[in-house]
Amino acid sequence: MHPLLLCSTLFILCCSCMVDAADRPEAEGGSHARDASQQLAALRRDSRQSPSAGSDEPSNAQIVRRAMDRYRMLAEAMLNRGDRIGGDTGARLIIYSTHMLLEQDAVERLLHAFSDGSLSPNRSASVQAELVRFTRGVQTGLSRVPMTETQSPERVAMELLQPLRMACEEASSRQAVSGWWQPVADSNARSDSSEAELEEAFQKIEIDEVLRLTIESLPAESRLYRSSLELLVKLDSYSWVNGPARRAVKETLLSEVEAAELSIESREASTRRIEAMHELVTAMGRLASAPGGRAVATRRSDVFEDILEIWPDQYVPPATAMAIADTIDILAQARGEEDDGLSRFRTRVHVDLSRQRLQAERRIFESFNEVAASRSPWTDPGLVVILSEPRHLLEAMQRLRQLDTWSEAAQQASPAVANALIHRLETLVGSMADLRTREDAARALDEFERQFELFESMNAAVLIGDSPFDPGGRIKRSISRARSDWMSEWSNERSAGDAANDLYRFHRLLDHVKTLRRLTDLGHRQAGRLPAWILPNDLLESKRAQFQEELLAYSRALADGDEKRIGQLQTVLENEFATLRLVAFVAAAVPPQVAQATDLHSLGLLMIRPEPGSRFLQYRPALARISHGLLDADFLVRQERFEEAEALLAWTNEEAMRVLRRLSATPSPPLAVPGMRDGDAGIDPGMMEMMR
User: Fold this and answer.
1) What is the mean pLDDT of residues 129-134?
2) Which of 84, 181, 461, 671 maximizes the CB count within 10 A of its CB?
3) Of 95, 111, 93, 85, which Cα lies nearest the Cα of 599?
4) Is the pLDDT of residue 626 over 80?
5) Around Cβ 633, how many Cβ atoms within 10 Å?
6) Long-range contacts formed by 444-449: CB under 8 A, 24+ apart
7) Model confidence at 647, in pLDDT bands (50, 70, 90)?
8) Higher pLDDT pick, 200 / 58
9) Does residue 28 sit in helix, strand or coil?
10) CA-to-CA distance for 465 and 374, rounded, in angstroms?
11) How is 396-411 classified by DSSP, letter by letter?
């Protein structure tokens, strides 16, 4: 049997052996790192023995050759130490050095203009100086490469490579581009004013001259300076803030800025408190802008003065300020929930919720002093009850509006059962108006929404069409029937009935088809451009073919209703192909520029640190472990050491399953929830009928 085919078979079988994530199987007598290191050593030895290596002429080509020899020497040292250390540090060293080997051709291409002497004398001299600096730096800096566990094992190599990066950029007249995928956008980030606009607005504010001079003495590029300006400008833009509260905020700002001068730690702490205070003031502004909220904001602006008295000479701790700000934001949103266009019953529920919202608003403001005294209000059970009530009420109001969306979708899917379903959902929303039944009703509605979004997103026509994954069109017909039955189950207070479980199975089939398509056209090769790992493409390609076979079998079992076979194949697809599913998940996030990666991306991948928030950065250690396991498994299969490969692949799949769970890449099956039967947790449909 061909080694790759045998490898794919082993990959399917391997997860029948459950291995603890902490006990990575280790194979004696060889590994990917040792094999790559030996090949590097031989390459460097042959290069030194070549005729050109003995020439005394310091040609540009020889300078590049010596630099690349040191480049490989650095990679070899990292491979050896990574193999010796093991664990996360070892895996990351091995992955980084393997990236170095894969990108060495790109580095040489960027230096080509220097090698062939086509640069101007000045630029050539600059490149030469950087290459010599790199060569000497590696020679003296190898001892700095980690020999024990460390949190940033790639740091030393990145530092040693910086002269080489500068040489490549000078030789190519272009700048390196970060190989890490762009940070995830923060949807909650506020739109900042320009520096000039802030400073202009700051000059127009009437404040104590000491405070003005103190702020102006801060470095203009510092976070402390900008956050202080933002707070003052925002405060000044609100005319509804009463005088004592305004003075208290400004006086405390002076204390914070003065305290920030004591140490770096004090500066950081003050800056965070100022930024959190800005969010609190901004949240109050949103309440003032909500319907009927201006009078409340004016009357309640003394909350600033009150909570600042609790923490003399400083603002409220950031976590506390953000808890208060979030709660005020929710009160503002709740004021914006109107009852126009609602049915008679829903209007009555809305009126009841609005009355409770006003009471909750009063209790919240009266409790802010107690909240402000805590450094972590979300861990205090008593405070959690106070802070969470407005959120529950807002959610109930929003559910009233959501009923229209659900009703429209239900009518389209199955008009015969739509009215009964909406009647039941109305009962649950109405139950959220009663404190005794609110929690169970909220859980039931959350589960319905989760299932609704999960099953409504299933587009069988697009994903399977007339493909082999829908034998005789039976899958599409079954999905249509199951949707109608699922609605009937919810109408009859069953949140995890047979139809819900059937739809979940169909969802998993369609999701696996999507996974398969993500890996078509070398999707796994593009996923491998993520700097956190290296993927053995031949092994994954053989795995993809095996995945397709199992998926075809799963679709036939679903179409035939073969329950025993369905259960077996579902376990195989979810667990024994976890690594492939993880690769597909990453492949779906490949940015366009990576699909057309250039040599400058290769340079940046090695030599530019990732920005905070870069995609998958927090999973870097886990992805390195998985990748290291795959590389070693690939090496073992090529050595025909199949039993060792099987054990290692089992461990790798377990690691991939853990990452998939952290990424929430696999939805949970339908859940049975309280509140879905008459009398459960006190929900009384009869009471709802009386309200109608």
Assistant:
1) 96
2) 181
3) 111
4) yes
5) 30
6) 444/495, 444/673, 444/674, 444/675, 444/676, 445/399, 447/495, 447/670, 447/671, 447/673, 448/490, 448/495, 449/402
7) confident
8) 200
9) coil
10) 57
11) HHHHHHHHHHHHHHHH
pLDDT in tens, 10-69: 343 343 333 344 588 887 777 888 988 888 888 888 777 665 555 554 689 999 999 999
DSSP letters for 567-628: HHHHHHHHHTTHHHHHHHHHHTT--HHHHT--HHHHHHHHHSPPPTTBTTGGGHHHHHHHHH
Reduced DSSP (H G I as helix, E B as strand, rest coil) percent helix, strand, coil of the chain, to 5: 75, 0, 25
Helix/strand/coil for 183 = strand
d(CA 479, CA 673): 23
- What is the enclosing helix (H) or strand (E) of 346? helix 344-372
d(CA 150, CA 93): 10
In order of 476, 548, 564, 605, the CA distances from 560 in angstroms are 13, 18, 11, 49
Cα-based distances in Å from 667 to 218, 447, 451, 619, 671: 50, 12, 10, 19, 11
**Dist. CA 243–CA 272, nearest whole Å:** 25
In the predicted model, is pLDDT for residue 543 greater than 90?
no
Q: Within 241-343, where are the H helices?
A: 243-260, 264-289, 293-300, 302-310, 318-335
For 400-455, the DSSP string reads HHHHHHHHHHHHHH-HHHHHHHHHHHHHHHHHTTSTTTHHHHHHHHHHHHHHHHHH
CB 372 within 8 A of CB 305: no
- Cα 687 to chain center, whole Å? 44
Quote the CA–CA distance of 101 and 609 in Å, as a whole number. Answer: 18
Which residues are paired to 614 by β-bridges?
A: 183
Q: What confidence category does residue 613 fall into, taking pLDDT thresholds of 50, 70 and 90?
A: confident
- End-to-end CA separation in angstroms for the chain: 72
Cβ-Cβ contacts under 8 Å for 50 (sequence gap 6 or more): none
521: number of Cβ within 10 Å: 9
Residue-wise pLDDT for 218-275, tens only, equals: 888 889 999 999 999 999 999 999 999 999 999 999 999 999 888 888 899 999 999 9
Q: CA separation (Å) from 576 to 623, 654, 658? A: 17, 9, 13
pLDDT confidence tier of residue 691, bands split at 50, 70 and 90 = very low
Collapsing DSSP states into helix, strand and coil, what is residue 326? helix
**183 has which bridge partners?**
614
pTM of full prediction above 0.70: yes
Angle between helices 415-431 and 344-372 (to 10 degrees): 40
Q: 242 phi and psi, to 5 degrees? A: -75, 160
Q: What is the mean pLDDT of residues 78-83?
A: 94
Higher pLDDT, 661 or 206: 661
Radius of gyration for the alpha carbons in the chain, expressed in angstroms and rounded:
31
Q: Which residue has the tokens 């010599």?
A: 132
For residue 350, the tally of other CB atoms under 10 A from its CB is 22
Q: Is the dihedral of CA 329, 334, 338, 342 positive or negative?
A: positive
Mean per-residue pLDDT of the chain: 86
Average pLDDT estimate for 471-485: 90
| Contact criterion met (CB below 8 Å) for 323 and 371 | yes
How many Cα atoms occupy the beta-carbon half-sphere of 633 within 13 Å?
A: 35
Q: Answer yes or no: is pLDDT of 469 > 60.
A: yes
C-alpha of 240 from chain center: 39
Q: Are 476 and 461 in contact, with CB atoms under 8 Å apart? A: yes
